[in-house]
Design a protein that fits this description.
Helices cover 31% and strands 22% of the residues. It is α/β, with parallel strands linked by helices. The strands form four sheets. Strands 1-7-6-4-5 form a five-stranded mixed β-sheet, with helices on both faces. The chain has a four-stranded mixed β-sheet with strand order 8-13-12-11, with helices on both faces. Helix 1 crosses helix 2 and helix 3 crosses helix 4.
Length: 321
Amino acid sequence: MLKVRIVGTGFHAPERVETAEDLAPRIGKDAAWIRQRTGVLRRHISDEPMHIMAARAARKALGDGPPPDLVINASLTPLQLIPDSSVFILEELGLGGTPSFSVHATCLSFLVGLQVASSLVAAGTYRRILVVSSEQGSVSRDYEQPESAALIGDGAGAVVVEPTPAGQDSAMLDFAMATFPDGASLTVLRGCGTRKHPNDPATTVQDNLFQMSGPGVYKMALRKVPPVVGGLLARHGLSPGDIDIVIPHQASGPGMKAYQKLGFTSEQIVDIIGEYGNCISASLPMTLAHADREGRLKRGDLVCMLGTGAGLSVAAALLRW
């Protein structure tokens, strides 16, 4: 148990909205197909780079409080390879001199970043850490792969982590993660690295676009998620009904319904997939901030955050809010 608490949340959704009807002609499907297969009615598309979106979400999370003494960028889509994207977020926030780095665990980057931040705060290394996820995944959509192209949206989310004051119960109670490399081929973006370097004449346009086998990911997740989440709850003598609110990665419409197979009810699960789509790592903090804004998070609540990421990886965290 790590005696830390989240003291601020924030999210940013770009103003430009792309509906299922807008996207349908580009992927050769109709709007009804998009809604049925992905559950995404609308997604927000950014005309600003990821560090600008990150800063917008971060300012909301920081509020009127003091500046952070560490910034963790927990995002998949970088502004560029070098320097690290956290540098540009710092610049935009006017936080020169503040240490920063990135955590990259695809769609689970925020959850892993939150665990890293909680560990550092609990150890006394830092006292106020900003964790921010910002994704401009729309630029890497492959319109020849309709299902994955119809899922992705842009956005950013952020939280501020501090030590829990004496006499209060807020804590990161537990964290669990497992990675299964046999699922590595299910979700890929082959380019942008040494395997498919931009200067290699064999690298194609498709190598630099996001591609996913939705049915493959779904089937594998159905097998791999229950042991991780069930084991986490069992270690604390909890059942799904004991959880006050579930904050999941917004993978897809079918994926959101699959969380109920774990024993959670639709009332427990915060579902924003229809409005924002899959915002990659930003979907978890956006969902958390959305729930916070709606007044669904109260001090003392048991919160379960969970999701999957390319790898295939599964992770879950149990928080006392």
